[in-house]
Specification:
Layout (H helix, E strand, L loop, with lengths): L3 H21 L2 H11 L1
Length: 38
């Protein structure tokens, strides 16, 4: 059970982020963010 909890959170968070990232942020914004991070 302990292992399932973190896995679930990771799956939910990953899916949520991956889905909203490309939808809300276009390629241009993504590029800018990548440069800012670096």
């Amino acid at each position: 059970m302990e292992s399932q909890t973190p896995l679930r959170l990771t799956e939910s968070g990953g899916a949520s982020g991956a889905q909203s990232a490309p939808e809300v942020t276009p390629p241009e914004v993504g590029h800018s963010a990548a440069q800012r991070a670096v």
